[in-house]
Amino acid sequence: MGILNDDAVLIEPGKNSGDPTMVTVNCPDESGLGSTLCRIILEFGLSITKADFSTDGRWCYIVFWVSPDNGSSRFDWDSLKNRLLSACPSCLGSYYSSLQSSNVSKPPSLYLLKFFCRDRKGLLHDVTKVLTELEFTIQRVKVTTTPDGRVLDMFFITDAMDLLHTKQRQTKTCDHLTAVLGEHGVSCEIELAGPELESLQRFSALPPEAADELFGSDVTSISNKVVLTVDNHLSPAHTLLHINCIDQKGLFYDILRTSKDCDVHIAYGRFSSKVKGYRNLDLFVRGTDGKKIADPKHKDSFCSRLKEEISCPLRVIIVNRGPDSELLVANPVELSGKGRPRVFYDVTLALKSLGICIFSAEIGRHSTSDRQWEVYRFLLEERREFPLDRARNQIVDRVTKTLMGW
């Protein structure tokens, strides 16, 4: 049996102003679908206030209650619906159906957006905000500032609409950037990122000392904020996981992506509303063999990884780079190869709020012994009114709180 396309995703506004919007997804199931849906919601800058989750391996039914992170009453719910529909197997929205079928076996095209303009405070975040609102995903970035106060930004981006090859989409993108930065003299170019541009995407290797501090830190003390209880007796067919933890941005996404990467299938779940800053979650799970998670090694490794991913989904430090200060932010990469949504957006927002200018920025990948990380590097400008050596803790704290939604 099938269902009508429009019935696969239903969006119902809250009854009163400020109430969360209810998003219902009812479609055939596939591995990792819940994680994909949470990722899309996070990409749109929405917070999941609560959720109910049910799947039998063939059909998936999820209800999300969501609210915009910035509390804005203006939001493009139609775009969200189209993106969610595009992720539903056999339930493609008419807008995305043709491009989904043509792109099943190939990754999205990578484009280079290059612009040159006069520098100012908050410039990088303002550009990132425009690209995010236009549904672009930033894959790589190279930002450099010239001695005469101009900035050359190169964004390697993919387009969720898969329309950036058209002149209309390119013109619209440059027009939006010019509208925000027009008085600063914008020169904007967009081209397909072919092999000849590979050298521009290279990521500077992290110094060993910085890598040790960023990836070698002990997160055990942080993990104590997460209480995880495993019960193999309550249900005859599933293992029950009960999680109590501090609420944070992307929490449900972190749980679902970790479960997917650890080959744990969530059959039923309830993501309750937060109480005094804490969340309670009940998840009925099983392994890929359809049975309870009874093997002690699998259970212990999954619980350990889940605790770590919930308590420390991102890492933020400041290190010396010669005489300058460099902000480093890292997050784990999914096994699918995807990084975490909106990290660049949130970091540039935090730095803008502190009045800190960014001299250069990069996004790249770094591999450790057991996983791959996405790393964001920001070389910060020293300002007389805001000495960086005295404000390092303040910067790390502001960036961390912005990323975690605290």
From TrEMBL:
PROSITE patterns: ACT
Lineage summary: Eukaryota, Viridiplantae, Streptophyta, Embryophyta, Tracheophyta
Function: Binds amino acids.
Signal peptide residue numbers: none
Database matches in InterPro entries: ACR1-12, ACR2/9/10_N, ACT-like_dom_sf, ACT_ACR9/10_C, ACT_dom
Key words, A-Z: Repeat
One example GO MF annotation: amino acid binding
Protein name: ACT domain-containing protein ACR
Record carries keyword Hydrolase: no
Pfam families: ACR10_N, ACT, ACT_ACR9_3rd, ACT_ACR9_C
Native organism: Brassica campestris
ACT domain: residues covered: 112-195
